[in-house]
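Hello Y.,

Per our agreement to keep a running log of every chain we model this quarter, I'm adding this entry. I've kept the format consistent with earlier entries: sequence first, then predicted structure.
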Amino acid sequence: MEIKIGIAKTNKYAVAISGDSVEVTERPQGGVSVILADGQGSGRSAQLASRMVVAKAAVLIAEGVRDGAVARTVHDYLYMFKDGKVSATLTLMSVDLDSQTLVFCRNSNCPVIIKQNHGIDVYDEEVASIGVHKRMKPLTVQLPLEEGLIAVTYTDGIQHSGRRRGNEITQTQLLKLIEKTKAEDVDALAQAILDQALLLDQNMPGDDMTVVVVGICQKERQDLSVRRMVFSLPC
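Predicted structure for the entry above:
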């Protein structure tokens, strides 16, 4: 099997600094984790909060801490550092090769959507963000790896796109995009979801937007173990 990760993001309209942060880090026992955080508000203050969250989570994952404990520790860290006055959303999405599972931990108002061979499941249960409440419990789900699996999550800039114009993006629209996508095409899916949100906001995003897509597909070449990363940053 091969792990594919697609990420697409953009800033809030007329705001130069994104309050969303995303990081991909290797797991010490094999596999990768994607860490997605959305800081409260927008601009530099939101970026500082989200970067703090992502950086702390990446260190803990590298030390072998389990994802659920990572989410709780990062919450405690943000709560202590910001005196319980700054919130952030956090989603960890991990492909754990040691256990041969996909694990995600979610403290976000945005869902995690999973496409498997049997169909699509949406994990959108209400769950608190991190940093504000003394007690915090992430939604944690563990699923067996299988070829064709796709996992999608995003920040609330996507969730609320079109709201100001009375034409908010719907889950049905997103599910149609996911349903027709193969696990090999995670980059295209991430971009398609972002494009749909930008269209509804008339290319003036009302909030920072980030989409993360993880796919599990067949290895392109069975005789090689080559890792590749493609990165694009407008400047």
